[in-house]
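Internal ticket #5521
Category: modeling
Description: The requester needs a full-assembly model to guide mutagenesis choices. All entity lines are attached below as received. Residue total reported by intake: 682.
Assigned to: D.W.
Attached entities:
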Amino acid sequence: MSQTRAQRVVLASRPRGAPTVSDFRLEEGPIPEPGEGQVLLRVALLSLDPYMRGRMDAGPSYARPVEVGEVMEGGTAAVVDASRHPGFAVGDVVLSHSGWQTHALSDGKGLRRLDPTAAPVSTALGVLGMPGFTAYVGLTEIGRPAPGETVVVAAASGAVGSVVGQIARIRGARAVGIAGGERKCTFVKSELLFDAAVDHRAPDFAQRLAEACPKGVDVYFENVGGAVLDAVVPLLNDFARIPVCGLISQYNAVGPFPGPDRLPLTLRQVLTKSLTLRGFIQREFAPLRPTFEREMRGWLAKGQVRYREDVVEGLERAPEAFMGLLEGKNFGKLLVRVSPL
Amino acid sequence: MSQTRAQRVVLASRPRGAPTVSDFRLEEGPIPEPGEGQVLLRVALLSLDPYMRGRMDAGPSYARPVEVGEVMEGGTAAVVDASRHPGFAVGDVVLSHSGWQTHALSDGKGLRRLDPTAAPVSTALGVLGMPGFTAYVGLTEIGRPAPGETVVVAAASGAVGSVVGQIARIRGARAVGIAGGERKCTFVKSELLFDAAVDHRAPDFAQRLAEACPKGVDVYFENVGGAVLDAVVPLLNDFARIPVCGLISQYNAVGPFPGPDRLPLTLRQVLTKSLTLRGFIQREFAPLRPTFEREMRGWLAKGQVRYREDVVEGLERAPEAFMGLLEGKNFGKLLVRVSPL
């Protein structure tokens, strides 16, 4: 990567179905110069997260879409390379939302200074950042597992799911993770110390899941939808809670969806079991962020929460890594190292 | 009806799809005699409610099914015709769960004495009874409309829906009812004083509903499912609440349901709008029953809640009336007058 030129990845076209390389375009240009009151940020780490797939589509969602030709959005850890802002000095490390690019200007709004000596900078994009907070509020505010209850989490080796299961255990619940493939399942069980891990690729997945949940399921933390949801629903206990955090299995799908229609039977379960389904975005719970950070720092210090990162080198590899994320190819929190810290 | 013989309607066979007359059987026998500690109840009014369809099916639900050959279950208002129980005297009027029959024995458990001078006895099966309480807890505990919010209720002229909309208005919300046919819609608007009523049989139903909800929908009280739900979902505002009380449109359906699969798009709305879907049965909220009754008596006294009853004469007509209920043929709370009070 040239140090004298800025690079950025823009949305070249809206994908129909799964994104392809042609939906992204790497552009180069001069490194911008900060105006009065601005800082120049050099992006060090870019977080890749499933929600970004939604931003590539037009139409209403919980956030405005990325327009064709615009830089792909994303959370970043960045270094202040030049400053004409009284609040920031060259060398400061900040959490920003600079997107898929090597450099960005900022007026300082929304920037948050990070202390690289307190915690690895990457954790501000993972376990201590948006994904960790998503897991925390979804589980504790919506899922609300009681001690002894069973919590099932999909995408259990991922940035959010891994934290969900570990907090569930801290709260005294039984944590059952669902992941794709034996390697991830072994990690979920041996490293993250979930009570059980079930491979959704196994031909007898539904039966294995049932065996891993002998007392049924009280909380299902939904990240994926599709066949995994279908396997969980029959196991749900009365009054079970389903925080709906993501639906990665259907982000690339192009409707109308072929039958049979699964909605009537799902609603019947909602009715007869007094289920709660609750979609959420973490920012709804922003006032809880300080509490989360205090608790999470404590858990990390005691080794009660562990995490794994999957770091890809170079901004130009972001599209490929993101496409892999949507297929479950990453193993742990997916990050792109854009430049050295 | 013979006064010297008891009659009862039993489940003759489990329906596949819509119940037919052959799924019920009218049986006659001697009027039973109370043993020591028992009362003989003569049923005066039988409540017919959609939940009974679920009891006709085998398989798990929130209550045990009626077995083939057993009396159909149901809430009743009854008169004590003979008593060998110290707590009840001949002539007492009670709320009981005696089912589809003219006479029943009871040991007094679960009976509740009614004061026919305080309120019409029929209201104990309707606006002051299970349907009214269902409306109350579903709206106030799950729907929780804020003043100025829009509440949409399906089956708005029915026993539950009619109460939902009227309480919504009392709480300062905008009440929009959905009902089948112009007569019911006129009733909902002119008699129940909902802000708007929309006929789900109208060819432009979805558009009319959208026009009746210019600020979107904050609470959708779900009684029906199906096409009505599909019309409401796109109108839901962020953080909308959907108490799932019933799904009458699909009770008679026989799966698998033909496509397209409506679940992915529905879940997408749950996710992107942070919706809450919550199934419930009123008994979960039993501790609120006294509060409900106090409030409802006040509303009735002030004319703030009105109700309409659809009374069918004779136990032998219960099957036909019940089959009509599942098709929306009733107009108001459906009751069977089994014998004079």
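Resolution: model delivered.
Comment from assignee: Chain A touches chain B at residues 54, 60-62, 225-226, 229, 238-239, 244-247, 250, 253, 255-281, 284 (CB under 8 Å).
Ticket closed.
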